[in-house]
Amino acid sequence: YNARCYRLVVFMSKIKSIVRYPIKGLSGENLENITLEKNQVLPGDREFAFARSYVTYEENNPMYLRKTNFLALVREEKLAKLDTKFDPKTRELTINLDNKVVINEILLKEENIKKVETFFQNYLNLGIDNKPKLVQGIKIQNNNNLTHSFSDIPDKAVSIINLNTINELEKNIGKNINPSRFRANFLIDKGNPWEEFNWIGKKVSVGECVLEVFKRTQRCAATNVNPENAVRDINIPNEINTHYGHFDLGVYARVIKTGLVSISDKLYIN
């Protein structure tokens, strides 16, 4: 029992990877540790996105928009062929295609931003009148917290995937599944398959941080794309439904206590 007389149940689960996706639809960035802020997404996660040409996004009054309003794997599987690196501080974006640098721009000046927007317009064959526009989730002044991020859901959440759940699904379908298909913030291991669904409504202490798990993650066609070759080779939602009778894999959690989280931190459930 702890000081507040809560019984902590210790699972063998621990953090295997911490990943953020600075630009929606593009490559993730692996982190050794991160300080999660109360009621916020993972700092810098989905801070930027490429909105479709017809989408109206007001940076001074940002509102949640569905993922189909932005360049994303759910429609553009070719994005998976790009190896991208983005530095949020300098705003330098580097894009490699087939081991060749095709873009290296600092996204501060309008001319540099337009070069990148035009690259995606041409690479994805969007058409002459359909150049996407780089958009940014605004931050609180003098604070790194995002008042808006381009997450798949309107809630400020951290996404969690249990690697052993993926392992069980792999065995059932007889195919390897790269965990990157699910684009989670936390990959956890050492736990039982699907145990994370039992955490709904419970608190998870990890490192110095406390999360509250509130929702299962319903999977869409974006997970059909193999991140290694950009081919839609497995219908993940259909396979989950066939074997388990639902379309969910992973959970979402809210940050209810600010704190540092590091790789190998154990998860405690109460």
Helix content: 10-25%
| Rg, Å, rounded | 19 Å
Instruction: List low-pLDDT spans.
Output: 1-7
The end-to-end distance, rounded to whole angstroms, is 11 Å
Order of helices and strands: EEEEEEEHEEHEEEHEEE
Structural class: mainly beta
Q: Shape, please?
A: globular
Q: Approximately how much beta-strand content do the residues carry?
A: 25-35%
Structure in words:
The chain is mainly beta. It is built from three helices and 15 strands. The strands form four sheets. A seven-stranded mixed beta barrel has the order 1-10-9-13-12-11-15. The chain is globular, with a radius of gyration of 19 Å. The N and C termini lie close together (11 Å). The N terminus is likely disordered.
Quick recap:
The protein is mainly beta.
Q: Which helices and strands, and how do they pair?
A:
Layout (H helix, E strand, L loop, with lengths): L8 E12 L8 E3 L1 E4 L11 E4 L30 E6 L4 E6 L2 E7 L3 H14 L9 E4 L21 E5 H11 L12 E4 L13 E4 L2 E10 L17 H9 L3 E10 L1 E4 L3 E4 L1
Give structural attributes.
mainly beta, globular, three-stranded antiparallel beta sheet, 270 residues
